[in-house]
Write a structure and sequence with these properties.
25% of the residues lie in helices and 29% in strands. It has 583 residues and is an alpha+beta fold. It folds into three domains: 7-121 and 568-582, Pleckstrin-homology domain (PH domain)/Phosphotyrosine-binding domain (PTB) (PH-domain like), CATH 2.30.29.30; 125-259, Probable inorganic polyphosphate/atp-NAD kinase, domain 1 (Rossmann fold); 260-558, Tumour Suppressor Smad4 (Sandwich). Strand 10, helix 2 and strand 11 (158-163) form a beta-alpha-beta unit. The longest helix has 19 residues, at 191-209. Residues 122-272 form the DAGKc domain.
Length: 583
């Protein structure tokens, strides 16, 4: 590591005297006592310096400048705990340094800015920003202009801002426009807005590479541009699962310093080709029903999810289906190993070497990745058949404030696999226990009717003899419906196979009572129990029931670094205005 001295001098912070030192990678200032002995040192990595300004400058909540000849202000990342074991809140630290002369002040600003360019080469210079003004509490514009734009201006990032006026406008723009000159794309909104950016960037990348997204056997080319997320929606699951907090300033600072977090993506296909991409949740059964029901109550705002979840639980539904999956290598990791995918995750790092062997530049990275396509779907598929409360596939923990550990606490962001969660039909109280454990630290998989598998691909189909009849019912019911009503289809309930073909392993046998749900609650909420559910794909209802999903390892990159371990961060004492800095 480079440690050459670039600049050193005496400075003042308020009335206290310090010795400031700038080396290649660190900017330190040490308080001195009256005998010039060291008292305490504050150290900020050059990579986490946001900007340097002449004079006394404030940025938030509003920009104020006092151009003083012998003062310069350094802005940097400072961390604070959120009260949780994982996830750190980032705020803008600010320290004003006084020096004996204007010449010395100019030397400091010049050297600090040069160090930023030298040791932070991956920082974005130009961004394309999409703002959803309708998402969440409709505060997207205010959040961007009051909190984010001033930070981007401080960091010298130029932005082209587009305020969307309709659904899929961002996706269509990315698919049609030339993105040359943009280092990344930022979405100000929720998970729906992120999904638009995701689909647009992946589609645009494959178009340029001449690859067909509808071909399941093709390994897609990783997107060269990063995605930044400024949370401003009803749900911000992707932001929470990759940063650990839902905070616009934290996310903006990750974008500014050029953090890079690879992310796995699932492509979801039906017989005719690609349907959608998914990163957080592909869910059939309970999660599909909750989404479909919530669409009927959008007037309730975010409360519609709690209401719909309660109603769907009381409906006590289960669905027949056949699940086939391609297991991942169990020697690499396990969904039950109780590890967390945190910043610097060793499992994801090893997966990068496995997915992109011998890649030293972007060209070889794509070449090595593309040449692997023929073997991605090879292996022995496992088949299970029965009645399920829910079938879920996730490429991340899918954690959120209400479920801090998420659907699959040990899922990894960038290991090229997904976690398949099967919840068999069971007694309502058993299913309630499964749901409740998502809000606590208890193992939701430690139940006899739940199993989880780390997989590379999943196929779902209806039992033989039921497909044609059930699809006829769906077509007949949806013919006279508008788009919103088609999202939820009720059909007459039928009995289905409960045969379980996979070996469940020791201690995983299920009794008939556990596999057969009790219908006594169904009459509370519905007169007819539907024979089929719908798929919830990252908050969107899929038009198909029978699907095949495949995981594409590290297909996109976010301006993030993964969730930081709060216990591993040591903080110094306050310097100014209560700021705490990483040592």
């Amino acid at each position: 590591m480079e440690t050459d001295l670039q600049l050193e001098s005496t400075v003042w912070v308020g009335s206290k005297i310090y010795r400031a030192v700038l080396t290649g990678w660190q900017f330190n200032w040490t308080e001195l006592d009256k005998k010039n002995r060291d008292k305490k040192t504050i150290s900020v990595p050059v990579a986490e310096v946001v900007g340097v300004e002449e004079g006394r400058v404030e940025i938030l909540p509003q920009k104020l400048i006092d151009d003083t000849d012998k003062v310069f202000t350094v802005f940097y990342v400072k961390r604070s705990s959120t009260g949780s074991s994982y996830g750190l809140l980032w705020t803008l630290g600010r320290t004003q340094f006084s020096v004996p002369s204007r010449v010395l002040r100019d030397q400091w600003t010049k050297h600090l800015r040069a160090a930023l360019k030298t040791h932070s080469p991956v920082r974005p210079n130009r961004l394309l920003v999409f703002i959803n003004p309708y998402g969440g509490k409709k505060k997207g514009r205010k959040i961007y202009h009051s909190l984010v734009a001033p930070l981007f201006e401080l960091a010298g990032i130029s932005c082209h801002v587009i305020v969307t006026e309709r659904a899929n406008q961002a996706r269509d723009h990315l698919l049609k426009k030339d993105l040359t000159g943009f280092d990344g794309v930022v979405c100000v909104g929720g998970d729906g807005m992120f999904s638009e950016i995701l689909h647009g960037l992946i589609g645009q990348t494959q178009q340029e590479a001449g690859l067909c997204e509808n071909d399941l056997t093709v390994t897609l080319q990783p997107c060269p541009r990063h995605i930044g997320i400024i949370p401003a929606g009803s749900t911000d699951c992707v932001c929470y699962a990759t940063v650990g907090v839902i905070d616009p300033v934290t996310s903006a600072l990750h974008i500014i310093i050029g953090d890079s977090q690879p992310l796995d993506v699932c492509s979801v296909h039906q017989a005719s080709g690609l349907v959608r991409y998914s990163v957080s949740l592909l869910g059939y059964g309970f999660y599909g029903d909750v989404l479909a029901e919530s669409e009927k109550h959008r007037w309730m705002g975010p409360l519609r999810y709690d209401y719909s979840g309660t109603m769907m639980y009381l409906s006590n539904r289960s669905y027949a289906g056949i699940v086939q999956y391609l297991p991942a290598d169990p020697l690499l990791s396990s969904p039950r190993d109780r590890t967390r995918c945190l910043s610097g995750c060793s499992v994801c790092s090893r997966s990068t070497e496995r997915l992109f062997p011998h890649s030293s530049d972007a060209g070889s990275l794509y070449s090595s990745h593309y040449n692997q396509f023929s073997s991605d779907l090879e292996g022995e598929w496992v088949t299970v058949e029965g009645r399920f409360r829910c079938v879920s596939l996730t490429c991340m923990s899918s954690s959120c404030p209400k479920s801090p550990l998420g659907l699959s606490p040990s899922a990894h962001l960038a290991d090229g696999t997904g976690d398949l969660i099967l919840v068999w039909d069971t007694h309502p109280l058993g299913f309630l226990k499964f749901l409740y454990r998502h809000t606590s630290t208890e193992d939701q998989f430690d139940l006899p009717f739940v199993e989880v598998h780390r997989v590379k691909a999943v196929r779902f189909s209806l039992p033989p003899g039921k497909e044609e009849e059930e699809y006829e019912e769906i077509g007949g019911l949806s013919g006279g419906m508008d788009e919103e009503e088609r999202g939820y289809i009720e059909t007459v309930s039928r009995s289905g196979s409960q045969q379980h073909l996979a070996d469940r392993g020791p201690g995983r046998e299920m009794t008939n009572l556990q596999k057969t749900g009790n219908p006594f609650l169904c009459g509370l909420c519905c007169s007819k129990a539907p024979a089929v559910s719908v798929w919830n794909c990252d908050g969107e209802i899929l038009p198909s029931i029978e699907i095949l999903s495949r995981v594409h390892g590290q297909l996109v990159r976010l301006y993030a670094r993964g969730i930081e371990d709060g216990a591993a961060v040591h903080c110094s004492e306050d310097i100014e205005r209560g700021c705490t800095l990483q040592i």
